[in-house]
Design brief:
5 domains; five-stranded mixed beta barrel; 10 helices
């Protein structure tokens, strides 16, 4: 009864002293208290955001967690709402990635199909993996880091190599000297054969150019070789004399492998055909062979390129050519080469001369082969000598200045008997002389 007495007056006093809306409010707060706020679930959050039905489209990149790697497929939970699967060629395009995955790993994949026959999202690691691969290669082209690649195929222009999951191209010009196909005459079939022999090998390269939009990737083995050789090449200088072995013979010269002083790392230099000997040669193989030991002087350094000369270590035979041969004299020489413009004639081991087509006959000819042939020995007249230019001109023509002896009969000039002063002024001077007997003189 006491409780009732207390409750009723309070209710009445509030009711009497307050307006109706206030009375109702108080009554509600007393009779129906507000419950504490509930914890929102993931579903509640999605309902609030309103994007719970945002299914990824084909070609979109999605992220998720690996929930299974069994039965030769990878299943991925996408935001806890749907399951994606990577299988078949989309998975084995990158087998290394498949082997390293485990439950709970966060991965990124590309949507291939929104729903497959099992109601799952069909995914692929390939597209996303390739994009990352291109990005990684772009970074490598900037950093200059050395990577290993495997040679897959060969064509006349170079090698197709595997760089991660992508394919790149290694041009012939970017091969290191060790693998460069040195073929005499540039025979394309032989070059291709040499390139094919490299298939299956692993080599070190640098990334030169990355063109993702065009799907082109260019790498260089030569750049790696140049970097490794730079510290050794820096020890060489023009004028150094080196001893080495001929490593290759080409129609334009020979390559010589040598070891700079104080190193056990070999370098390779080129002796151009014009620097092999002072005399003219048709092909280096006529004088030199592979593995032959030679001595040469360094005459040029351009980056990783080393230029050598063998003839600089031998005295120039043209210095004394003017003492050995004289203009106008006839000498024996062997025709060693024939061109439309004349003969190249070997006078001795060191000196060759040129008999121009205009000097091969007294009458004009249009073909030197009508006069002589290669290997034939003939007598030529020296018509010019230019030691500084290493040129000596020859001719088969008879010297035009040679005149045969001519007999001239004696002639008597009559003397003048009487001449007046008036006559003297009209008389030629030679008639004033006494009779003169002219003796025949032979000219040579």
């Amino acid at each position: 009864m006491t409780n009732s007495a207390i409750t009723e007056p309070v209710t009445e006093s509030v009711t009497e002293s307050a307006t109706e809306p206030i009375t109702k409010t108080v009554a509600k707060s007393v009779t129906k208290p507000t419950p504490p706020p509930a914890v929102l679930t993931e579903l509640d959050k999605l309902l609030e955001q309103g994007n719970f039905l945002n299914v990824p489209k084909k070609g979109a990149a999605v992220k998720g967690k690996v929930i299974s790697t069994k039965n030769r497929q990878v299943k991925i939970s996408i935001d806890g709402l749907m399951v994606g699967v990577v299988r078949g060629r989309e998975l084995f395009q990158d087998p290394e990635m498949f082997r390293s995955l485990k439950d709970g790993d966060e991965v990124e994949a590309t949507v291939v199909d929104v729903e497959n026959e099992n109601g799952e999202v069909e995914l692929s690691f390939r597209s996303v993996g390739q994009k990352k691969a291109w990005q990684s290669l772009g970074e490598l082209s900037v950093s200059g880091e050395i990577i290993k690649v495997k040679i897959l195929e060969a064509n006349k222009g170079g090698l197709i190599v595997k760089v991660g999951n992508l394919q790149g191209f290694l041009p012939v010009s970017q091969l290191a000297p060790e693998h460069y196909p040195r073929v005499s005459g540039g025979d394309k079939h032989k070059i291709l054969e040499k390139l094919k022999s490299l298939i299956g090998q692993e080599i070190k390269v640098k990334v030169l150019d990355v063109m993702e939009d065009d799907g082109k990737l260019i790498v260089s083995e030569k750049a790696v070789w140049e970097e490794e050789q730079k510290s050794i090449i820096d020890r060489c200088k023009v004028g150094d004399v080196v001893v080495g072995e001929i490593s290759a013979v080409a129609d334009f010269g020979v390559f010589v492998k040598f070891y700079p002083t104080g190193t056990d790392v070999p370098l390779e230099g080129l002796v151009h055909i014009s620097e092999i000997a002072w005399q003219r040669i048709d092909h280096p193989k006529d004088l030199l062979t592979i593995n032959q030991t030679v001595k040469a002087e360094i005459i040029g350094l351009e980056g990783s390129k080393i230029f050598l000369s063998m003839k600089k270590l031998v005295s120039d035979p043209w210095v004394d050519v003017a003492q050995k041969y004289k203009i106008g004299e006839w000498v024996e020489g062997k025709i060693v080469k024939m061109n439309p413009f004349g003969f190249f004639v070997e006078l001795d081991h060191d000196i060759q001369g040129l008999a121009h087509i205009s000097e091969l006959s007294e009458t004009p000819i249009d073909d030197p082969s009508k006069i002589g042939k290669i290997g034939e020995t003939m007598r030529f007249r020296v018509v010019s000598i230019e030691p500084q230019e290493h040129r000596l001109g020859l001719s088969l023509k008879t010297e035009s200045t040679v005149v045969k002896p001519v007999a001239v009969p004696a002639v008597t000039v009559p003397a003048v008997t009487e001449t007046t002063s008036a006559d003297l002024s009209q008389t030629p001077a030679q008639t004033l002389a006494s009779p003169v007997e002219v003796t025949p003189v032979s000219t040579t």
